[in-house]
Design goal:
homodimer, 596 residues, mainly alpha, 25 helices, elongated, disordered N terminus, disordered C terminus
């Protein structure tokens, strides 16, 4: 990613120095307003995602201070808002839950260690410019994973709506646990939770059109809409306090410690680190992909750019910051970044102001959240994550590309059936295997001359001239180990089937690279053809490929020649084709494999 | 592999029916002579490779009867000779040694089970047409693996030459064990072993030229040379008997049970099967790759062809045959197949005659091998496997392609340092990762018009005309998930750097496929460009790619157009370039990433 620009700067750079110099009053206004709105939005989100991760609610606030400050210093996006996000919180819960019981100090300590490892990995990847690793998460895999995660998260929150306890790292276990607990449902909690969910859905879908009908501008309407969760929290907290819901058995947030985020250290335990290594890597990559795609989308709107390797450094610093201040893994969030952008944030200073806002909330606001029903937080999560669920991708990939469909379906099913970590690994494995399978069967066309031109076309699609003494093959793929043998097979079969064959010409116009395996295959093909009295020729070899071939013995020993154009090859080897005396007689061997 | 020919036959077919019908006296002569020579060669090899695999010597003979008969029925190669081979025997020893102690009945039983699993996997892969799996073993990985295996095998035989016991699954352990045992060396054994080794090396290198100087034809000289091990066995066995070497403490083969191969069954134990699954798969794939490359090379010499999926079926049947007759994993061997071919074998009937020859040997010859020194067998193995060692591949790949060099070196080192199984897995992993890394950074050239022509060339290599309002990008790779984002980056950066930009045209002539991820990236690029007031156009889209794009929303919403040729695009969008009023001003962003 952006490897072409490595010469422009040494890492880590400080984007702060660039925008800091030009800071003025107007920018301050924009940043200040945006920060206020994002702070209001981030408080309930932070509490909710901490609970989703199995942590005390205040940990969500801690994770929304230092990371924002560090991102403002190192980040290359002007408007990205970092902090706890849904999918990463789910992955945190799945990982930490294997090492400690939720609600214990040990659990929090593992989460801190996970943030530390994830931060260290992101930082290392940034400094080593390994951002391309994120490319191995294909869009279908991400879509399948996000959809399945959304369903898992929503299902995990249903227990809070019902006021019961139910655990499970996959969808089936979760649903089974919920079914077992159905008789223990706390009906007041469920009623409040369902109403809060309905209210939030309405705010999301129905409020904005209503406000716009009332003459409010779309941007302002959008921002008011984003404050919906705050309204839900204010209303249900007041009711819980006024109507004594706590005494009726409803679970509330309760006492949140007031004060600055604590200074914490990760656990220095090699055995634990080894076990957390793979989950930390997956969390890092998923967080990075989410963050960079949001950042790029928003930067492009203002013709700005972000530097993926710099983003790795910034997210690494943010997660290290989270680890040392009692937080858990964070990344750039989609919804909050869009709100920040729409509200007029100009520079990362908005992030600094947001961090200050959250810090003030930790210091002053937490007593006010004492009576906040946990079901309300569950409702905000459910509404947020269900917008991530997109089954349409199954339909779209089914019609566009079956291998992509298989990758989506495999990721989705594995995530739901086994869990987030397995789901991601299955998705990456399946998409790589399918890609390799596809390129291992390259499209190889037997081509012939279009009469009266110098063009060659597939003998199966066009009426063309060929000679029984010459075989023209066009390979529509770079040659590498996974497909080199299929070229061998094709040439072998043709040589066996065409007794009059004297020349094979490979038209190399679509070959961008020939690796060492493919070079050996070409040598094998050449030897076998030579044994059978057939010469091998090449035509239209690209410059960089020719440069590499010149360093080898292959060209020196080639039984045939290298022609600049395919027409020159045919004109030199079988001129009768040009004069129309040769006839077009593709053999049965020219039938092509069907390609998905 | 050969997927294009699936319609021609249903599997499993019986090639036997084809060549059996045309069998005549002349074919019989050719097959008979070849079988005699291969039998003479195969007896010492079978004994030696059984010892290498940690099994009693007669097991090597058992593994050379039923598998040959079954290959003759199912195999598509006319001349392939199957049986125990060096690398597969080493892999068998490494695997079985983890489950039982060498020399015990339990050890033999695990080897039988391994042959059964490998046979079942090969058969299943053949019936499911999964032969392409073998493509994932790249030539560099195979070279590195074979070289390292040759060194490991040679080192493992040194203990027999020294007449001591020393175990170790990797090179370092083996050498250390040998060093510890140096003081226990049995000097008579070492002397005989070293002399036998020297004799066999001389036979291999010096005898053929000598025979040819004596006026013997090269083919006959070659066959005499291959009988060298038989001479070494005859001489040392006679000396051991005559000079009473056994009484002096030399290890001899001893009593080999006379009789038909026993009927055996694999162990039906799910836990054992699970543990043997990965090694069995690796043995299957390595055996298949070795066998198919020999088979194809020999078939091509006579313009015959072999069917890889049929070969899987035949090798599967051969290994199942080995499992049910007391054998161990087998495959098509290189040296013996070449001898079979050179000696004039015409049909798989030669294999049947060879099987009969080995069977007679098991019935009659084994008492004659009683005094055969084990050191002689070790010498035949050492000489055979050292010809597999090829460090030249390191040099060749270093100069041709650094990623291939890394793959060779990683495979070689991992095999020597850890063992055969890890070595292969590391090799496959590294070569896949490097391939993906390379294609994840596609060559994307900014192109401009060559004045006076309709051709477009890289702005960095040619004096061309460009316009500040139009960016022409040529992508030299199919677009898929691993490289889609780098196109996004390139376009984003260009849009940010070129304020006058109004049109981006992607020249798609080298794009053979666009997967769902790349399609989403194109949509993202289109949206971002549209937000910045820039239109996205495509040119020279290939037919199959266009067919797929037509099924999507992308083309309907495209802000620009799809042009048949890139020249038409530029002529329509920025005609000033054609008239020479625009100047060639590539920006700094046109600097390309360096490619390995």
């Amino acid at each position: 990613m952006a490897t072409g620009f490595a010469w422009r700067q040494a890492l880590p750079s400080l984007p702060l120095l660039e925008w800091g110099r030009r800071y003025d009053r107007e920018t301050l206004m924009g940043d200040g307003v945006a920060a206020l709105i994002v702070t209001i939005m981030l408080i309930p989100q932070s509490l909710a995602y901490a609970l989703l991760a199995g942590l005390p609610p205040e940990v969500g606030l801690y994770a929304s201070v230092a990371p924002l400050l560090l991102y403002a210093v190192f980040g290359s996006s002007r408007v990205l808002a970092v902090g706890p996000v849904a999918v990463v919180s789910l992955m945190t819960a799945a990982t930490v839950g294997e090492h400690a019981a939720a609600g214990t100090a040990a659990y929090w300590q593992v989460a801190i260690t996970l943030a530390f490892l994830s931060g260290a990995m992101l930082l290392a990847m940034g400094l080593l410019r390994l951002g391309f690793i994120a490319n191995f998460l294909s869009h279908p895999v991400i879509s399948g994973f996000i959809t399945a995660s959304g369903l898992l998260i929503a299902a995990s929150q249903v227990k809070t709506l019902m006021g019961v306890k139910a655990e499970g790292h996959n969808f089936v276990d979760l649903l089974a646990a919920l079914a077992r607990q159905a008789s223990n449902t706390h009906w007041l909690t469920l009623t409040v939770g369902v109403l809060a969910t309905a209210f939030l859905f309405w705010v999301r879908k129905g409020l904005k059109p209503l406000l716009m009908r009332w003459g409010i501008g779309p941007k302002v309407a959008d921002i008011i809409t984003k404050a919906g969760p705050v309204a839900a929290i204010a209303i249900t907290t007041s009711l819980a306090w006024g109507l004594g819901w706590r005494e009726q058995g409803m679970k509330i947030v309760g006492a949140i410690p007031q004060g600055l985020p604590p200074l914490t250290l990760p656990t220095w335990d090699a055995a634990l680190w080894r076990e957390l290594a793979v989950p930390a890597l997956l969390i890092s990559v998923v967080g990075f992909v989410e963050s960079v795609s949001v950042g790029q989308t928003l930067a492009a709107k203002r013709r700005q750019r972000i530097e993926p390797d710099q983003e790795l450094v910034a997210l690494g610093a943010s997660n290290l910051g989270a680890a040392f201040t009692g937080g858990f893994p964070v990344t750039g969030g989609f919804a909050r970044s869009v709100v920040n952008f729409d509200a007029g944030a100009q520079t990362p200073a908005a992030g600094v102001f947001t961090a200050v806002g959250i810090l003030l909330a930790t210091l002053l606001l937490t007593p006010a959240l004492y009576f906040l029903p946990q079901a309300t937080l569950a409702a905000t999560i459910i509404v947020a994550v269900l917008s991530l669920v997109d089954f349409g991708v199954l339909k779209r990939t089914w019609f566009y590309s079956k291998p992509d469909f298989v990758a989506v379906a495999a990721t989705l099913l594995a995530t739901l059936a086994v869990g987030v970590e397995t789901g991601l690994l299955v998705g990456v494995g399946v998409s790589l295997a399918l890609h390799l399978w596809r390129t291992s069967r390259p499209h190889i066309a037997t081509v012939g001359l279009v009469a009266g031109t110098e063009h060659f076309r597939n003998v199966l699609r066009h009426p063309v001239r060929v000679s029984p003494a010459l075989l023209s093959l066009r390979v529509d793929e770079s040659l590498y180990f996974a497909n080199a043998r299929s070229l061998e097979d094709r040439v072998n079969d043709a040589a066996a089937a065409q007794p009059a064959l004297r020349h094979v010409v490979l038209q190399c116009s679509a070959i961008n690279n020939i690796d060492a395996s493919a070079l050996e295959s070409l040598e094998t093909i050449e030897h076998r053809l030579r044994d059978a009295g057939i010469a091998l020729h090449l035509s239209e070899v690209k410059g960089p490929v020719m440069d590499r071939l010149r360093t080898t013995e292959f060209l020196r020993h080639l039984s045939g020649q290298v022609f600049l154009t395919h027409f020159q090859a045919v004109a030199a080897l079988t001129p009768d084709v040009l004069n129309g005396t040769a006839t077009a007689t593709p053999t049965t061997l020219d039938r092509e494999p069907s390609h998905a």
